[in-house]
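Thread: "does anyone have the structure for this chain?"

Original post by V.I.:
We have the sequence but no experimental structure in hand. Need at least a predicted one for the grant figures.
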Amino acid sequence: MTPAFETLRTPPPPPAGVVATTAAARERLRGHVPEVEWGVHRDYIAEILRLKRERNAVVLAHNYQTPEIFHGVADFVGDSLALAQQAAATEAAVIVQCGVHFMAETSKVLAPDKTVLIPDPAAGCSLAAAITGADVRLLRERHPGVPVVTYVNTSAEVKAESDVCCTSANAVEVVESLGVPRVIFLPDEFLGRHVASRTAVELVLWHGHCEVHARFTGDQIRGLRRQHPGVYVLAHPECPPEVLAEADFVGSTAGMIRAVGESGRARVAMITECSMSDNVAAAHPEVEFVRPCNLCPHMKRISLPKIQRSLELLRHEVEVAPAVAARARRAVERMLEVGRGGARS
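Reply from O.Q.:
Generated one for you, tokens below.
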């Protein structure tokens, strides 16, 4: 006779080796990943750590990755600029890019002799999709002699058509380093408007937008302040101007992270992608994080199972045509030189 119900059995404890291997990650994630979820993540983390050693691989994770990736398996974390620098500097044979496709392309451009993998090749970007190399060539025809500054959130093809790249952290510095009165600035319109408000250089803008940041509104920020009096609002410059006008601090992802620690405020709201607040909160348990966030559907394509599979099979290798890579590399390296104080011509 079949019983009406069965007693749920407690799953067996994990092997001691798995517990030891993942102990550091468990501590970093304690309080940020529920215990029931840790039981799912743990085995993937242990296997990824093993595969990294076997493959001589490093994992680069953007600030928008989920905590189990960001704190569990990443060797280097940061914004686009930081990850580009790590890709150029690493001695590992394999780079696993836990971000979106243009970031993996940038890693390959800067480290052409490395194997660069992306766990899900469908992880794209609305900004990267907003402009093509042909668009840049047309802009050059319309504005002869005007240099092109391109945000790193673009394809290698677009970078190759540019004079120099920039990130949200160094955009003003890069624009002014050219020493010219007028610049074509691509492709984020809202970042471009923010840069234009901080420099005397005239910017020719493109109408690309980040689908995460463009959804925030000024009304949303005002409502946040009513619900959470005294909240310190930090916004990414890819947000619309009305949002930036309501913010207490405007800056790149790295700048926002620094500002949380330097502000000394007990309650903050980071107007950016959801997972960033989760990751920063792990380093600031004393701060209350109000989370009016939007998810990036592309970043969320990256998961622990996909990272494991990518390392197992060396799957989804990113390639960039050598001729395109050489030209794109010059634009990215010029950006890095500006950060090191190099002169622009």
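V.I.: this helps a lot. The chain has a mean pLDDT of 91.
O.Q.: and The first helix runs from residue 16 to 21.
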